[in-house]
Amino acid sequence: MVQIIQNSLLTPYLALHIPDGFLSPSVSLFCWVITIVLITVSLKKVQRDYQEKTVPLMGVCAAFIFAAQMINFPIPGGTSGHLVGGTLAGIILGPWAGTLVVTVVFIVQAVLFQDGGLTVLGANILNMGLIGTFCGYYLYRAIRFSLNPRSLKSMTIATVVASWCSVVIAAIATAFQLALSGTVPLIASLIAMIGWHVLIGVGEALITMIAVGYIWKSRPDLIYDSPSSVRLDTRQKVHG
Fold it and tell me: Superkingdom of the source (predicted)?
């Protein structure tokens, strides 16, 4: 996710796209297990609870995130970042379908563009996809519903905070994985990862806010917790 100038000694360690050989077999296996379990659960949830009309929306969302990730935005210090998209997918599709979408995106990136290693793909999907989507979505939902679930302002605040936090949390998870693997000392890894991704998260928050804001204004029914569905639930509770 983050690209550092070549003369930096920490260049290979500051990316959320972890390369092959940077995680120990035990850490990599642990991440694979968690990732496979969560993807399996997500598949079952989507097949059981989601309607067929969600499938085309998943495809469009995946295509948008993939295309948006090709655009890098500059960060001071010779660094550039790009959209991760986990929170965006979660807000539009919900955490379960959103998880499947970003998983497909990261698999394509790893296989076709060598963006991250194949042996550590489980860790990369866990950090950027699963943590980003689940943490981002549920934090967004908690903030939005605690303020006003039908308010554009509440949605904007929730989206910005959740998107930024999802990137920073993913960076922290990556730092711990590298440290547990003996690749980089924990303190150095945390300082480097958090320091850069605090800035990267700002770009993530802005892009996600613009995308979700546009959909909210033009097609709010496409959002997973749409304003209309919230009104319906509220009425049902009142009359129930």
Answer: Bacteria
